[in-house]
Design a protein that fits this description.
499 residues, mainly alpha, 25 helices
Length: 499
Amino acid sequence: MNRASSVLSRYFEAKLALNYVPFKIPVISLVTIYALCIFCMTGIIFGFPSLRAVLVDHSVYHHLCNDLSDQFPPNVTGDEQIDYQPSEQVCPAQSLRLNTMFITASSTINFLSFFLGMFQDWKGVRWMGALSSIIFGSGCVLFALGLRGVFDGFIIGYNFFAIGGISIYLPSLTLGAKDPARQGFLVSILSCSFDASSVVFWFMAQAYFAFPQGNYRSKFINNFFFFYLIFPLLALIISLLRLDPEDDELENQTMKLKDEPKKDLENKIPFEDTLLRTEIPLNERTLIRQYLSYEFILTATMLCIFMTAMNFYIGSTTEQLLYISPGENLSDMVSYFSVIMGLFAVLSAPVVGYIIDELGLVVAFFINSSLLTIQQVLLLIPILWIHWIVMVVLTVLRALLFSSTISFLMQTFGFQKFGSVFGMLMMLSGIVNLICIPLTNISINKLGGNFFWMNALLFVFACLSFLYPIWVWREKRISTRAIQYHRNGKICTKCWPQE
């Protein structure tokens, strides 16, 4: 009797500890479901302009406007303000409250990524997925109740969208270890789903404004976020059914790469030298020592350069277009940019996966620098239609940049502290990206709206970004030579400077 109760006790403890998996789910199925959850959850906050149009038409925060003379700006009609011709204009107080939603949420993603990554390393990917579902689901409920006029839950709910979205994205990245031969392809699907998720609110807005004005629109938007609870529920289920509750298992899977042939080894492990060059391998060092490594510092510097250049253009797209074609109504062009980014993000996933898996990370990093340089060169040309090309280049660059960087982190730092390493990179890039604010202010207020000089400055940094793939190529070449010596039972004394 005691033995039976002991067995039952261990059984229920395993289930409550989230260590119980009833069956194995194929890798491609896991990636597909996670990609759907990421598309519907992770980056939806970046579709804020479309959501803003819906909220304004639904008179959210309109009570802050005292009278009609308080409309913002007084000489601009609602048609010019927002793409979807809302029935209400926007006053300064209302506009400020709406914009606060996006500003706080977009900042939250970067600054909380580090702490969320540490939580994942501490509790595991299952607890992280469960946390994501609870937070995102709470955001849906707060938004739905706010639209029904129960109370003001918009700002808190939108921040919950940001936190819950990035919380499901982080654990999904570890799926790349399940199939090392296709790691780049798997990661590219997840990263491209992140980039494409900004179009979710655009589709919602299209459906909302397709209804006649009145009760039909109200019923649609009042029930939309309750219906959206399906996706955090799906994320919760798939998180609990994952076969790898501990990151140690993922770490052991990656160690199988050491037995691959030389050709595969050169593509998969650019920094195998850390197992030979130091007494403590990089993936076994303490978190502080990982942060102080050349690999982390140079990768963080590279990522900050790329993110600053890309986000500077994304944040000032309207102003740069208006300087080229003053007086024109460019709202349609700007709104379709988000659709282009979503579409090309999905289409570029196979190409990005092929580059990383077949051509290697060195080639991927060289392509990243080349695309950034092309983007900055095009921005120096004051022709309106060139910006369509810029958006395509930017979309492919974002997909390849994130996919190649994530693959590099997995192969270099392993999975035991992956959340903390990736989270710190996101937080640092978010802090450095604050420089975009003074750069934009200088271009508008000091240079009369001319962004040429700031784009020229970023072009210089784009050229400097080529130093990173050159360094990776050099370390990879040294690593391959050292591995050959190691397999022959020798020590390569000329591979690195003797310490």
